C-alpha cells in the first residue's frame, strides 16, 4: 500500500519510521517532511493547511491511506474532504476535531455527559471575566478557546496575573480569533499524564500511558513549550487506574461524540491529571501526541499499519496491541531561545552510527547538501529503549554531547523521566 503521512515534526518521523517496517507498506510519502523522513519516505513540499493541494497530490500519486500528524488539517476539515472523495484517512471529521479546536466546546461536552474535568466559567467580556476572577481562590487556570500552539494557557497565582493575561487575550487579541472566548477554571493538582486511544467511533484500544514535559526548564519551571521530553510507560499508573480512565473518560467521550452526531474516528488523546478524586481531563487532542509518539513507536510491537486499517475499517474491536517489555525515554534538543525567538541554521553533528536501541527523530531540521541544518525550535528527539526506566534515561542522555549528538547552542532539560523514578510518588498514588 502507498501511504501519506502529513506533518514535519519528530512525531511524523517516528510514525514514518514505524510504518516503514510494515510488510504491507510499499511506498511512503511525507508532506512537508523533514531531514529524517526524507531518508525513509519521499518528502513533498506542500503546506499542511493547503487541503485542496493535499487532495490533488493524493489522487495523483494514487495513495491508499493518509495519516494526519498535526491537528490543523483536521480542524480545517481535511478528513471531510477525503471522505467526500472516497479516500481513506485516519483522523476525525471537522466537527469531531472541535474537541481540540475549541476548549469551550470540549468543556461543555464534558459537563453535559459527566466526564470529570475542572469547574469552569466561559467569558467573552473582559470586564465580566475580571470581576469573576477577583472573587475566586488562586491559583486559577485561564485558557484561550482556540488553538494557540501551547501558549494560550496560563496558571495565574494572583489576581494581577489573571487580569493581565485576560487583557492580553480579550482586549489586545494576542491570539486573534482563538481568543474570542476564555475559560477560567479551578487549578487542579496532581501528576499529568498523556493517555491515547485508537478508535473507530465505537470500539477502542488504549496505547501505553506517557508522561510529557511541557515546561522549558528543569523542575517544571519556565515557559510552556510544545513538549520537550517524554517517557513511557508510567510506573506509577497502575492497571486499576488505567481501567478507571477507560471507563470514566475514554468510553464516555466516544459515546458522547456519537450521540452528538459527530462520530469520532482516529486517535483520541486526552491530557489528564491524576487528582485525589481520580483522573480528570485537562484538554483533548485529536491526534497522536508530540513528543509522546516517539517513545510509543519505540515500544510498539504491533504493526502500526494494522492499527490504522482497523480504525478506517471499523475493526478496532478485534485489534490486539502488543508492546515491548521495558521503557522508552525521549529527550528533545531545542534551539537556543525556544519557545520564544530561536536561533536557526546550526549544523547538526549526526553520528555515523547510533547505539543499539537508540533512535534520532528529527523535527526542525533539513538536509542541505551533505549536512543537516536546524530550521525550528524543537530540532530533534533522542529516543532510547531499555528494560528499566533508569537505563533508558541514561542511554538517551549518554548519547548527547559534542562527541556524539550535538549542534551549537542546543538546549535540553536534564530531568526528563525523573518523576517516574520517584518511589515516594508511586506510594502516594497506590
Could you give the topology of this structure?
Elements lengths: L1 E6 L2 H10 L7 E6 L4 H4 L1 E2 L7 H11 L3 E4 L3 H4 L2 H7 L3 E3 L7 H4 L1 H11 L6 E4 L2 H9 L5 E5 L8 E4 L2 H12 L11 E5 L4 E4 L2 E3 L4 E3 L4 E2 L2 E3 L3 E4 L4 E4 L6 H21 L6 E10 L2 E8 L7 H7 L4 H9 L14 E8 L12 E3 L8 E5 L2 E4 L2 E4 L3 E9 L2 H10 L7 E2 L15 H7 L1
Parallel strand pairs: 1-2, 1-4, 2-3, 4-5
Antiparallel strand pairs: 6-9, 7-8, 7-9, 10-17, 11-12, 11-17, 13-16, 14-15, 16-19, 17-18, 19-24, 20-23, 20-25, 21-24, 22-23
Pathway: Purine metabolism; IMP biosynthesis via de novo pathway; N(1)-(5-phospho-D-ribosyl)glycinamide from 5-phospho-alpha-D-ribose 1-diphosphate: step 2/2
Protein name: Phosphoribosylamine--glycine ligase
EC number: 6.3.4.13
- Count of alpha and pi helical runs: 14
Question: How many individual domains?
Answer: 4
Shape: globular
Low-confidence stretches: none
Strand arrangement within the widest β-sheet reads 3-2-1-4-5
Percentage of residues in DSSP E strands: 25-35%
What portion of residues is helical? 25-40%
- Major β-sheet, in short? 5 strands, parallel
| Radius of gyration, taken over Cα atoms and rounded to an integer in Å | 21 Å
CATH class (first level) name of the largest domain: Alpha Beta
| CATH level-two architecture of the largest domain | 2-Layer Sandwich
CATH-derived topology of the largest domain: D-amino Acid Aminotransferase, Chain A, domain 1
Number of strand elements? 25
Which structural class do the helices and strands define?
A: alpha+beta
| Through-space gap between termini | 45 Å
CATH superfamily descriptor of the largest domain: ATP-grasp fold, B domain
* Average predicted confidence as pLDDT: 95
Amino acid at each position: 500500500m502507498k501511504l501519506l503521512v502529513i506533518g514535519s515534526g519528530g512525531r511524523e518521523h517516528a510514525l514514518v519510521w514505524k510504518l516503514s517496517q510494515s510488510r504491507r507498506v510499499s511506498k511512503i510519502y511525507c508532506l512537508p517532511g523533514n531531514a529524517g523522513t526524507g531518508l525513509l519516505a519521499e518528502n513533498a513540499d506542500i503546506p499542511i493547511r493547503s487541503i485542496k493541494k493535499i487532495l490533488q497530490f493524493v489522487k495523483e500519486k494514487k495513495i491508499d491511506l493518509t495519516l494526519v500528524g498535526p491537528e490543523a488539517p483536521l480542524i480545517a476539515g481535511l478528513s471531510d474532504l477525503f471522505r467526500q472523495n472516497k479516500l481513506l484517512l485516519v483522523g476525525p471529521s471537522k466537527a469531531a476535531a472541535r474537541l481540540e479546536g475549541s476548549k469551550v466546546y470540549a468543556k461543555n461536552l464534558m459537563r453535559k455527559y459527566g466526564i470529570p474535568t475542572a469547574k469552569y466559567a466561559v467569558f467573552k467580556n473582559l470586564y465580566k471575566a475580571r470581576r469573576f476572577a477577583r472573587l475566586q481562590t488562586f491559583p486559577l487556570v485561564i485558557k484561550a478557546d482556540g488553538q494557540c500552539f501551547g501558549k494560550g494557557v496560563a496558571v495565574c497565582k494572583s489576581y494581577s496575573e489573571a487580569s493581565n493575561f485576560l487583557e492580553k487575550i480579550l482586549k489586545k487579541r494576542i491570539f486573534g480569533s482563538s481568543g474570542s472566548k476564555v475559560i477560567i477554571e479551578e487549578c487542579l493538582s496532581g501528576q499529568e499524564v498523556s493517555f491515547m486511544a485508537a478508535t473507530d467511533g465505537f470500539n477502542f484500544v488504549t496505547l501505553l500511558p506517557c508522561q510529557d514535559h511541557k515546561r522549558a526548564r528543569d523542575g517544571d519551571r519556565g515557559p510552556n513549550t510544545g513538549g520537550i521530553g517524554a517517557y513511557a510507560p508510567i510506573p506509577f499508573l497502575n492497571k486499576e487506574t488505567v481501567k478507571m480512565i477507560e471507563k470514566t473518560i475514554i468510553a464516555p467521550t466516544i459515546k458522547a461524540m456519537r450521540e452528538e452526531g459527530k462520530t469520532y474516528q482516529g486517535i483520541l488523546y486526552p491530557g489528564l491529571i491524576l487528582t485525589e478524586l481520580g483522573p480528570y481531563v485537562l484538554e483533548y487532542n485529536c491526534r497522536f501526541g508530540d513528543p509522546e509518539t516517539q517513545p510509543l513507536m519505540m515500544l510498539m510491537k504491533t504493526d502500526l499499519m494494522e492499527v490504522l486499517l482497523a480504525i478506517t475499517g471499523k475493526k478496532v474491536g478485534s485489534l490486539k496491541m502488543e508492546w515491548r517489555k521495558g521503557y522508552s525515554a525521549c529527550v528533545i534538543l531545542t534551539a537556543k531561545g525556544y519557545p520564544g525567538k530561536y536561533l536557526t541554521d546550526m549544523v547538526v553533528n549526526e553520528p555515523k552510527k547510533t547505539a543499539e536501541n537508540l533512535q534520532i527523530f528529527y523535527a526542525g531540521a533539513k538536509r542541505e547538501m551533505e549536512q543537516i541544518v536546524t530550521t525550528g525550535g524543537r530540532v530533534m528527539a533522542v529516543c532510547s529503549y531499555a528494560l528499566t526506566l533508569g537505563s533508558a534515561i541514561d542511554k538517551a542522555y549518554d548519547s548527547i554531547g559534542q562527541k556524539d549528538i550535538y549542534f551549537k547552542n542546543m538546549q535540553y532539560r536534564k530531568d526528563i523521566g525523573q518523576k517516574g523514578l520517584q518511589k515516594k510518588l508511586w506510594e502516594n498514588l497506590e
